[in-house]
Amino acid sequence: MAIGSDITTASLVEVAKLIARKDVSPVEVTEAMLARIAALDGRIHSYLLVTAEHALAQARVAEQEIMAGRYRGRLHGVPLALKDLINTTDIATTCASTILKHFKPGYDAAVVERLDAAGTVMLGKLNLTEFALYGYHPSYTPPNNPWKLDHWAGVSSSGSGAATAASLCYGALGTDTGGSIRFPSAACGVVGIKPTFGKVSRYGVFPLADTLDHIGPMARTVADAAYMLQVLEGRDPRDGATRTDPPGDYTKALLAGAHGLRIGLDRGYSSTDTDPRMSEALFRAVDLMVSLGAEVVELNSPELADAAHHWLAICAVDALIGHKDFYPAHAADYGPVFRSLLDHGAQVSAVEYARAERERQATRALLDELLVGIDVIACPAAPAPAAAQKDFPPQTVMPPELVAPLVRFAAPTNFSGNPSITLPNGFTEDGLPLAMQFIGRHGDEASIIRAAAAYEGATEWHKRRPQL
User: Fold this and answer.
1) Which domains does the chain have, with CATH numbers?
2) Catalytic residue IDs
3) Which residue has the higher pLDDT, 248 or 364?
4) What would the mean pLDDT of 259-279 be, rounded to a whole number?
């Protein structure tokens, strides 16, 4: 394979095989990716910081190790990128806010330690909404969607979605508190895994809402994301919420196919307050899974959407705790959207928060019940395809009552902690990605990866690339 656009638009698995066979070197791949970033990201704005010297230094080390026969595994020498709320030693971690504009951590986040141990190359820090909510600080330029530059790239992990879709990295890390892996994955037509709560350590990741936050991989194929997750997951005593699950091996899940898979589908939940293009794409995808040997179990649980009405209360109060060093003392330094969240958190009553906690317990119990006897639940990844930027300016403050419809497919699994994988399942008539998600049991990432890989293997959506 020639070095150039072909190598940069390849999947992580494809480039990893080339590196392992020594057909290409990590330095060549990194140089090609840095050149592509320099040529294209001025139009996309997916990166806040490109760490070219750091990346090339890591690539040279990886190349020397591989040439000496010390190959560390599938991610060795592969260039990735990080959402810019993940701590990197002596490298700016801004959370896309002027409050942390000059912050350079003195230590790496746990996920960075794991990627370093796997021998990856860090290309830079990716753009995001201010402190990972849904609005951008006025000082920062929002990312553009690679499929249509005048459309949004999702929220929060938007730089991660845009960079991955535009082939400006082979994969990226995102975080998800109320859909922030799923929304940009859906908007940009990539694969994102929101693991089980506690599957991946959040040590060294600036929280939005500590009791709702998840961190996970975003990539161009299911296998790419699965292999990233395998490196990232594991118990970390520095994050008391991390799980003690045995190490995952997703190779079998990737190859298991759809035969015998039991898929739960609530057609009412999946179509209410939802763009028909998203729900219809989901139903077509489930029909395809049936043709591959899966079984559909019809569900009827409209109360699943109730979590969305209580998500904001928990998110706002948790955020208020996380920002106690800055708010209210530096309230004027926040952009309007994030400041409104903190203001809202300060007004949430103890009764309201208690009701939200009760709903969180009910949501977890409901999903546990629904997943008895089935392997995954299928639903849309977002209520609609990516919106035009002109229809939703970056500093728009949404009234609290409008938040619930936005997070109706996301909030339940942030409340419950269940794992979810998002993947493309079509395109609109004007070329924007459509997407669905598979939700699984706690600790059972293998089943959602199996379902997603079976669908992906029977379709071509993941092979499309935006024309840039």
Assistant:
1) 5-463 (3.90.1300.10)
2) 83, 156, 180
3) 364
4) 98
